[in-house]
Amino acid sequence: MRLLVVGAGATGGYFGGRLAEHGRDVTFLVRDARAAQLKKDGLQIISPNGDAKVTPKVVTAKELKEPYEAILMTVKAFGLEQSLEDIAPAVGPDTMILPTLNGMRHMDVIAKRFSARNATPCVCKVAATLDKEGRIVQLAKFQDLSYGEADGKPSPRTEALDKFMQGAGFDVRHSPHIMREMWEKWTLLSSLGGITGLMRGNIGEIEAAPGGVDFVLAFLDEVLSIVRKVGVAPSEEFLKATRATLTSKGSPQAPSMYRDLVQGYRIEADQIVGDLLKRGQDAGLKTPLIAAAYTNLSIYSARQAKA
Ligand SMILES: NC(=O)C1=CN([C@@H]2O[C@H](COP(=O)(O)OP(=O)(O)OC[C@H]3O[C@@H](n4cnc5c(N)ncnc54)[C@H](OP(=O)(O)O)[C@@H]3O)[C@@H](O)[C@H]2O)C=CC1
Ligand SMILES: CC(C)(CO)C(=O)C(=O)O
């Protein structure tokens, strides 16, 4: 199997880098500046699970000629449309496009540009960022990719993918419940993103503030009201773990969207919070806390676009 990793940023660089480190056939599709940097310095991972440095295979869009079996799509939501145009020569009828993106909208965008068969469900859990030297810095030990066919049944192509992913230095799961897991991930992420974005603090800081825990649990209830109505209901096990994560004393946890916001970067508020809010509104639900978070994040985004 040959894997094309689109983008060598935090998630693409981390998982693609680990796969390359373990001898898998991985090629990174990058733009000119990142291509030059990778050729000069290699791809470097700084991680509590062990540092790594690889010299990856790199291509730019004009060099793509033929389909890959699998594509790990790791651009931010606002780079998705352009990157789908770029990868067109690399997409055949059976190519699995596995997104690390948060939210759900990208699945429709991929299906519309190519086909629903190409849009292969994937859930990515890692906390990573790029430093000033372009190195991938993993911020916590967890590192998990799950994938599967949307109907939950293993197929020859997902079996082959699983064989390719196993044993490459991170946790993987060929999941029979991948659609539920995608909705669970969005439940967690939209809550984390909305809560930390609106309150401008990490989970521990919000938990310690007066009214913090009540706010967090009320926000999560709004998210769940939408997910249960328009998506796939989460498992009880997930809910228990999520309530604990979101209210954990002293926890430094914050999502990648909050890290981007604090650093003044563009954020995925539309994909992570706005899209969920809209799906709820379309279903007749009122979710004032999510609406307030989206308004707040949209003000940041408008300022950021002008800057
Ligand atoms: N970071 C994290 O911890 C996690 C992030 N996620 C999600 O994963 C997704 C990706 O996030 P993340 O990896 O952090 O993002 P990054 O910004 O770190 O990386 C995205 C990379 O995509 C590249 N890129 C954009 N457009 C193209 C293109 N057309 N061709 C080639 N490369 C392109 C950018 O390269 P360039 O240098 O050229 O701009 C950039 O390096 C997001 O949806 C995020 O929410 C999910 C779980 C954890
Ligand atoms: C769930 C979490 C927080 C880690 O994977 C994430 O997806 C993010 O930071 O974007």
Account of the protein in words:
With 307 residues, the chain is of the alpha/beta class. It has two domains: 3-175, NAD(P)-binding Rossmann-like Domain (Rossmann fold, 3-Layer(aba) Sandwich); 181-306, N-(1-d-carboxylethyl)-l-norvaline Dehydrogenase, domain 2, CATH 1.10.1040.10. The chain is built from twelve helices and ten strands. It has helices at 10-21, 32-41, 80-87, 105-113, 156-165, 178-199, 203-208, 212-230, 236-246, 256-262, 269-282, 288-306, and strands at 3-6, 26-29, 43-46, 52-54, 57-59, 70-73, 96-99, 122-130, 136-147, 171-174. The strands form two sheets. It has a five-stranded parallel beta sheet, with helices on both faces. The radius of gyration is 19 Å and the shape is globular. The mean pLDDT is 97. Residues 6-12, 29-31, 34, 74-77, 79, 82-83, 86, 100-102, 124, 126-128, 130, 256, 268 line the site of NADPH dihydro-nicotinamide-adenine-dinucleotide phosphate (NDP).
